[in-house]
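Data availability (excerpt). The following record was deposited with the supplementary files.
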Amino acid sequence: MNHRCTALLLSWLGSLCACNGGGGDSMPQNADGSIRLVHVADARWQQETAATEMAAALDRHAEIALVFAHNDDMAFGAALACKQKQRTSIRIVGIGGTAQAQKRVAEGVIDATFLQPTGAAAAIDMALLACSGIPPPRRLVLGPLMFTKATLAAGGTVVPSPGDIVVGGLRHQHASVLTTTPVTDVVFRIAMAHRTGGEPRRARIGEDLKTAAKRYPQIQFEYHAAEGTPEQQVDLVRDFIAQNYNAILVAPEDPVALRPVCKEAIAKEIKVIVLDRELGSEDYTCFVGCDDTATGRAVGSAIGKLLPKGGAIVELQGAMTTSAAQQLHQGFVEALGLRKKS
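Predicted structure:
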């Protein structure tokens, strides 16, 4: 575990002890005490576990105003427990933004869900800029989409991060490059070496990339996805290097395995655009993706607006040995200014 993950885990353990080991001022709360975290549970991403933990929280706390669940399955589990205990006024927020979760928002089962974008359109744009001799930023962190009843029809609302602002500025500044009606016949060969493994999010990344690339006649886009081992993804990258593509996109399945071959691509002046999961080395041109800490901050900011008069919050976390769960928690407490009072 790296130093950042260790620090986040220690921070979470402190919050957990505060929430479950005492009361009053020992619980994390914001500066004026109007928003406080009264119960934290590791529900391990599971609906049934979340329902059990939520039932226990309801038995212990009469004042719960909102539940923040680290995924939509846990949010639904919390909703089932609230219904069973006849505590249906409690607001529930989840992360995932799946079609099923959006349906539950429409039905009023949960109040909001957040979808982390694939970053595919921005990745294609950064690849086109890089191939055109315009260096893109090294790292672009994009904000999530928030779905509530009021925003479902519009396809959600973006909770912007600095990365979204940078992408918007680049698209405006370099509109003559990022154009669907180029004035020259120059074509750049760009490839995606993917590994889906049957995962819905990875499949969505692939489809979004194809759609984004299709907009540009100046891009010849090649897409291949390995369905087996991470080594097959490495082989795809190596094949694209041999064919001297202008840019190669990867959404790493195993970042450690990909680093050497990405280094080979960079050495041959092939642009490497990394999506979704960071490579963990310097052998790339641009990273485009989400940051779980930033997503946690976006959720915390939205929760602050859902509770204008404050209230008690339950947090149903994923497995806290994972960096995703640690970072979601960290961003959430930062946005709400939750601190254990001394």
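Summary of structural features: Residues 1-24 have pLDDT under 50 and may be disordered.
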